[in-house]
């Protein structure tokens, strides 16, 4: 009498889980004879990452015993589901793939994950989750298109101040006043030039530091200038400056910000980063002009 032998039940174990990177091994798994399969999946907020290219190399070590890329094995790019698959012989491998931001794995000197051991009839699933950083710009009465933002790695100087780090990515806002970056998790800096004071807390550039990006979540950086409107005679040429104090403690104009000509209605305005300014118009100086985000301050 023939008795059917039940098929082994696949067992999945988690090898690594960091929130942004998950590695799971399933065994047994139906793959090509004598092979195992590596699947790499990339996810962004709201969907899969298609067209993300991955290279598989054999695992090797340098003279210090640190893992490095060995011989090339294969490469391919993710499909519409955000997944790419490789049938490989039992061995240890290194995966590399370039994403915007910090290294998503533990490979040194290049974005990737080392030490990925796989056996025959095993599935190794490597899941990489990105976060989103949306930058927005809007003035008092409209969204600002064409406002360019740059994302940088976070950096401190010897005094512990945030200073400009290395370049990661850049984009300009569209008609909606927003632009989105898909980034590996970490803390970043965001810079963008705008008239007036520094709108963030960087010591050497106009921008914000310690901007957190988390896997599967969207973070936001919002640039919200205010407006100075000068009411004067047509053809008058107002000038706006930042404000400082002289030796006696009196407010005076400092760095030049913007100037322009009042139109035929006798009005001129400029959008500036919130703060306290000096306006020079028609031979007089108006100090302590306080500008708040998304609001208009009128100078007559």
Question: Uncertain spans, ≥5 residues at pLDDT below 50?
Answer: none
Radius of gyration: 28 Å
Report the sheet-strand fraction: over 45%
Determine the CATH topology of the largest domain: Immunoglobulin-like
- Count, helices: 0
Question: What is the second-level CATH architecture of the largest domain?
Answer: Sandwich
Strand-pairing-aware structural class: mainly beta
SSE sequence, one letter per element = EEEEEEEEEEEEEEEEEEEEEEEEEE
Number of E-type strands: 26
CATH superfamily of the largest domain: Immunoglobulins
Overall average residue pLDDT = 96
Number of domains: 3
Supply the CATH class of the largest domain. Mainly Beta
N/C terminus separation: 104 Å
Q: Helices and strands in order, then pairings?
A:
Elements lengths: L10 E7 L3 E7 L8 E9 L2 E2 L4 E9 L5 E11 L5 E6 L2 E6 L15 E7 L4 E7 L1 E7 L10 E6 L1 E2 L5 E2 L3 E6 L5 E6 L2 E6 L15 E7 L4 E6 L2 E6 L7 E7 L5 E9 L7 E6 L2 E7 L2 E8 L4 E4 L1
Parallel strand pairs: 3-10, 11-19, 20-26
Antiparallel strand pairs: 1-2, 2-10, 3-4, 3-7, 5-6, 5-8, 8-9, 11-16, 12-15, 12-17, 13-14, 17-18, 20-23, 21-22, 21-24, 24-25
Features:
single chain; 300 residues; mainly beta; Immunoglobulin-like; 3 domains; six-stranded mixed β-sheet; four-stranded antiparallel β-sheet; elongated
Structural summary, described in words:
With 300 residues, the protein is mostly beta strands. The chain has three domains: 11-129, Immunoglobulin-like, CATH 2.60.40.10; 131-223, Immunoglobulin-like, CATH 2.60.40.10; 226-299, Immunoglobulins (Immunoglobulin-like), CATH 2.60.40.10. The chain is built from no helices and 26 strands. The chain has strands spanning 11-17, 21-27, 36-44, 47-48, 53-61, 67-77, 83-88, 91-96, 112-118, 123-129, 131-137, 148-153, 155-156, 162-163, 167-172, 178-183, 186-191, 207-213, 218-223, 226-231, 239-245, 251-259, 267-272, 275-281, 284-291, 296-299. It starts with 10 loop residues before the first strand and ends with a strand. The model has no long low-confidence stretch (mean pLDDT 96).
